[in-house]
Specification:
Blueprint: H1 20-25, H2 36-40, E1 45-49, H3 56-67, H4 75-78, H5 83-86, E2 96-101, H6 112-130, H7 137-144, H8 149-162, E3 167-172, H9 176-184, H10 187-194, H11 199-212, E4 218-225, H12 229-234, E5 242-243, H13 258-270, H14 278-289, H15 305-315, H16 328-334, E6 342-343, E7 346-347, H17 349-360, E8 362-365, H18 379-388, E9 393-398, E10 401-405, H19 409-425, H20 433-446, H21 450-462, H22 473-484, E11 490-498, E12 501-509, E13 519-528, H23 536-554, E14 566-575, E15 578-584
Parallel strand pairs: 1-4, 1-5, 2-3, 3-4, 13-14
Antiparallel strand pairs: 6-7, 8-10, 9-10, 11-12, 12-13, 14-15
Length: 591
């Protein structure tokens, strides 16, 4: 971590801040990633995708401060003690910076074009005033007289080329309003501005033209977003520059490594404002915020920057951690994804893929760097999109494919939420989630387990639409996990190893957050095919097998660490979608 000298007792957390200069001048926490500037200079036109809330906007601000010739006087101050500040490249403080942030565009199809034109024109007007010495008055007037932003940009780049001016274009949240319109309004509205003569397509056509000309006034370009889809659509296939999103060299450019998170915790501990056990906190953060890997040959997983800062704002100075470990802003960011799993209020193939991921934990696919909206029905495109959004992370390379998994418990809970929301919106399955959450709480506090499963079984019985989705043990298992996660007292695991076997569901009491919870549960799930005739002997054998497994699991030494918890074994047997057995294992497990 680099720092600027200050009289403040410790560096404050820059949660929600992306203004690099302000962070540095106000001596807020800053993890130095400036070494990546040297690597970026290898490329002139760059496209870089990362999930929301990872630090992309701050990186845009760093590039602006580093290259802006109008900010040269601040260079030594804001880059003091940083990697790049101690050994800057010759190109620092030598560009005219033109920055766009498209998150400000209102995502309403009725006004989006006017909003876009007005915003870009306003940004260009500010740019011309800022660098007035480089643009004679008649040239400024000539640029601003053009009727469209595309024409204004063409005129700007043409003059910059003629006058040997170097312009660096930075675009943040390039896909924000496009994604919002796509997921909230639909494909038709999205196609209107990303295809044919749509205004957004024309805007990128000008940038594309600028990148293809030798000596162009558009010297450098850096675009960030969360998805490759809009750029592929507006450029007829990604060919506007170098996509570094899957490059191992840039895996750690945004996000935090475990070493960096540990250093942050140690800093605040030494400052006397963080009194939690460091290793306990790091383990908690690792489970909830870590696990992101964006390149197959990368060596480190990453923590979500926003989530780490969110946690720290809640517990500094010397306060308990947050009651809710998932930042509300993260939940809001990803709610639109569920729209990609529905067509005309019916669940599509993407929902089945999401369900498969939840059921199995892993999925193998070919990871692709560029794809259009029309290709999103292809499994590899949808799964690649989930990877870019941070919902799936690379585990390993497998020949020409990669194995992906859900990176952490935060994303896992979001996934369960998508599943529940999708069932409800498609009118497949709907329950009173608040009431069900109260039943799960009672299960944790009082050991009152039976109402939880009876409630779900009765709801399935009453709502016939859901039955088509409940075929197979894994499907039932995923369905139960999705609903058991509606409440916070348990950490819900599937296929957790106990005594050299694997229990179907382990409801681990979340003692770090709720130390008063006295009960935990191991659930063995058995499934009998609906088309098979039920025989009493088969059911009795199945129940006996499940109870034998549970007795073995409950002897596992790993349960001894939960000294204050009583663990109960539950047997559930389903005949197709129908729960026909719901029993507790006789006797109390040893403690």
């Amino acid at each position: 971590m680099a720092k600027v000298s200050s009289s403040a007792p410790y560096r404050l957390i820059p949660y929600g801040m992306s203004d690099f200069e302000k962070i540095r001048l106000e001596n807020k926490l800053f993890v130095d990633k400036t070494r990546f500037i040297r690597k970026l200079e290898t490329y002139h036109y760059i496209f870089f995708i990362r999930p929301r809330r990872f630090g992309k906007s701050c990186w845009i601000s760093i590039l602006e401060s580093y290259y802006d010739l109008a900010k040269a006087s601040l260079f030594d101050t804001v880059f003091a003690n940083t990697d790049i500040g101690q050994d800057p490249t010759p190109e620092h403080s030598s560009y005219l910076i033109l920055t766009f942030d498209f998150s400000v565009i209102r995502a309403d199809p009725e006004v989006v074009e006017n909003q876009f034109e007005a915003y870009v024109k306003q940004t260009l007007s500010f740019f011309l005033r800022k660098y007035a010495e480089a643009f004679p008055h008649e040239i400024q007037q000539q640029i601003q007289e053009q009727s469209t932003v595309s024409a204004q940009l063409q005129t700007l780049f043409a003059y910059a080329r003629q006058a040997s001016l170097k312009i660096y274009v930075l675009i943040d949240e390039y896909d924000n309003f496009a994604n919002t319109i796509l997921t909230s309004v639909g494909m038709t509205a999205y196609h209107q501005f990303t295809h044919g003569q749509g205004f957004y397509r024309n805007f990128f056509a000008v940038l594309k033209e600028g990148t293809s000309k030798s000596g162009s006034g558009l010297s450098r370009l850096f675009i960030t977003g969360v998805s490759p889809i809009p750029l592929d659509d507006v450029t007829s296939g990604f060919n506007i520059g170098k996509n570094l999103s899957l490059s191992p060299e840039f895996n750690e450019m945004v996000g935090l490594t475990e070493t960096e998170v540990r250093q942050i915790l140690e800093y605040y501990q030494q400052a006397g404002v963080f009194d939690q056990d460091l290793n306990t906190t790091l383990a908690l953060m690792r489970e909830w915020y870590n696990g992101y890997r964006f390149a197959t040959r990368a060596t480190n997983d990453l923590f979500n920057t926003d989530m780490v800062l969110y946690y720290l704002t809640e517990c500094i100075p010397n306060a308990p951690g947050p009651d809710e470990l998932i930042d509300t802003n993260i939940r809001i960011d990803y709610t639109k994804l569920k729209q990609l799993m529905m067509i005309n209020q019916k669940l599509n193939g993407n929902f089945d893929r999401l369900k498969t991921i939840i059921e199995n934990g892993l999925i193998t696919t070919q990871l692709i760097g560029s794809f259009s909206l029309n290709q999103l029905t292809q499994p590899k495109s949808f799964l690649s999109l989930l990877h870019y959004l941070g919902l799936l992370s690379i585990v390993k390379k497998q020949l020409s494919q990669v194995v992906l998994q859900i990176p952490n418990r935060t994303v896992q809970e979001l996934m369960y939420g998508y599943m529940r929301d999708s069932y409800e919106e498609a009118q497949v399955f709907r329950i009173n989630l608040e009431h069900f959450a109260s039943l799960v709480d009672a299960m944790a506090l009082n050991g009152d387990w039976k109402p939880v499963f009876t409630f779900l079984a009765e709801a399935i019985e009453q709502q016939t639409s859901v039955r088509d989705y409940l075929q197979g043990e894994k499907v039932i298992q995923g369905f139960l996990l999705a609903y058991l996660n509606v409440s916070n007292p348990f950490l819900c695991h599937s296929e957790r190893e106990f005594s050299k076997g694997f229990v179907d569901l382990f409801l681990e009491p979340f003692l770090d957050q709720y130390p008063e919870i006295p009960y935990g549960f191991l659930i063995e799930l058995k499934y009998l095919k609906r088309q098979e005739t039920l025989k009493t002997s088969n059911v009795e054998y199945t129940v006996a097998e499940a109870k034998s497994q549970l007795r073995t699991y409950l002897q596992d030494r790993s349960l001894h660490k939960y000294a204050s918890v009583t663990f109960m074994g539950i047997v559930l047997v389903f005949h197709g979608w129908e729960m026909i057995v719901c029993e507790v294992l006789e006797g109390s497990p040893p403690q």
